[in-house]
Design a protein that fits this description.
Lysozyme; 8 helices
């Protein structure tokens, strides 16, 4: 077998480090041959420079790449940490703002509910006050009187009081008993008024023109109505004599 073929097969079977060593030996051999061929006074720095360049090519490049890779990894990790921290801070700020808005909304709702409750209480109080006033008015309006002479006099006195017409129970009772003996349908058919065609009528014997002139608003227009007759006669007596209490005879 030729020697050159054996060297090639052997070269393929060597690993990387072995090939590097073989290359180094070959390089050194070539350098020795070159040195022997160069004159003795020639510059020997070329050999050293070539050897140094070959050594830099195989020793510095991998170290530089590894350092750059580690720096990039550290920088990337730091950026990720900063981004995560920023995202966490933003999330916390959003959560806090949402909580503040919720608290403000709850406070506003509570204030509105309190105001609504206060308004309802105020309206209820006003309604109760109005009901009380209506009850008082109703009580006054629905005051009942007996359907007899005592009730008629008392009812007439309340109306007279509301209209500012003077008079007392005794003054009314005394004149009623003298004029009609307490008969609301009494009519005088013998005095001058009767002769003139306008007889006196009712409890206090009032003639129709006087009843019409001194009729008290809110009472009946029927001259025989006890309440209307008493209040009209008392109103006439107040105008002519100051009060029905001052009347002691025909008037």
């Amino acid at each position: 077998m030729p020697k050159k073929f054996e060297i090639r097969r052997l070269s393929r079977s060597l690993n990387r480090h072995q090939r590097i060593a073989v290359a180094g030996v070959a390089t050194l051999g070539a350098a020795a041959l070159a040195f022997s061929a160069v004159p003795s006074n020639a510059d020997t720095t070329t050999k050293d420079t070539a050897a140094s360049a070959a050594k830099v090519e195989y020793s510095t490049k991998p170290i530089k790449d590894v350092k750059a890779s580690v720096t990039d990894q550290l920088a990337g990790t730091d950026l990720k940490a900063q981004a995560a921290k920023k995202a966490a801070a933003e999330k916390a700020a959003v959560k806090k703002a949402a909580a503040q808005r919720k608290a403000a909304a709850q406070k506003k709702a509570a204030a509105a509910a309190a105001a609504k409750k206060a308004e309802a209480a105020r309206k209820a109080k006003e309604a109760a006050s109005r009901s009380a006033k209506r009850a008082t008015i109703k009580k006054v309006v629905t005051k009942s009187y007996s359907n007899n002479l005592d009730g008629w006099i008392r009812h007439s006195l309340d109306i007279m009081k509301s209209k500012g017409i003077p008079g007392s129970y005794n003054g009314l009772y005394r004149n009623i008993m003298r004029e009609s003996s307490g008969n609301p349908n009494a009519i005088n058919g013998w005095d001058i008024n009767a002769i003139n065609g306008i007889p006196s009528k009712g409890l206090l014997q009032v003639i129709p023109p006087t009843f019409s002139a001194y009729h008290v608003a809110g009472t009946s227009w029927n001259i025989y109505n006890p309440i209307a007759n008493i209040t009209a006669a008392a109103n006439y007596a107040a105008d002519k004599y100051g009060s029905i209490d001052n009347v002691n005879s025909a008037y």
